[in-house]
Amino acid sequence: MSPAVLQAARTLWDFHRIHDQLSCADVIIGLGSYDLRVADRCAELFHQGLAKRIIFTGKSGNWTGALYPGTEAEAFAARANDLGVPDDAILIEPQATNIGENIRFAKAMADDTVRRVILVTKPQTQRRAFATVRAQWPGIEPMITAPPTRFEDQPTAAYPLDMFIHEMVGDVQRMIDYPAKGFQIAQSVPASVADAFDFLVKEGYHHHL
């Protein structure tokens, strides 16, 4: 992979990440995916006392059907159990197939007392999660976080670097297209990010468009 492609990918990575200051919330919501490190982060925040409940949300997706015996939410819950989170602190939402459904279905499971939530997702989907929750759960105070994974360490054997870059490119396009559909709030895309997006599309990273 060329240095130019890696540099453009890092530009998207930096754009997608959000560094919210975390404080106590009513619930932690873990967005299911191929990345069990998200469940690890949820368990860490639970043990820090930042919330007393975790909702894990996610069905089996394109990349996870072969990874887990059940749904993403069930796999994340099992990982949290292994890390000492008790069953009675976990709710499982096993139907969501995208971030919009993650948010809507978790909202439906939450009671009316929920006012502050911590959303835990992959580093490269933080901004998309922020834009989605702002549009689809108005009135809630969201805090966005992710495992503290380095760019170099984010790809996995099951989800290698090429797929990771395709995903980041696709999410930039969704940030441009989805506000008009009501799926996300509008966000400014810096010129450097737009240039990196255009370059990567021309280099063939368009499978998620």
TrEMBL record:
Please list which residues make up the signal peptide. Answer: none
One GO cellular component assignment for this chain's record is: plasma membrane
Domain (DUF218) spans 26-170
Q: Can you say what this protein is called?
A: YdcF family protein
**Membrane-crossing residues?**
none
- Per the UniProt record, the source organism is Phyllobacterium sophorae
Family matches, as InterPro entries:
Cell_Envelope_Assoc, DUF218, Rossmann-like_a/b/a_fold
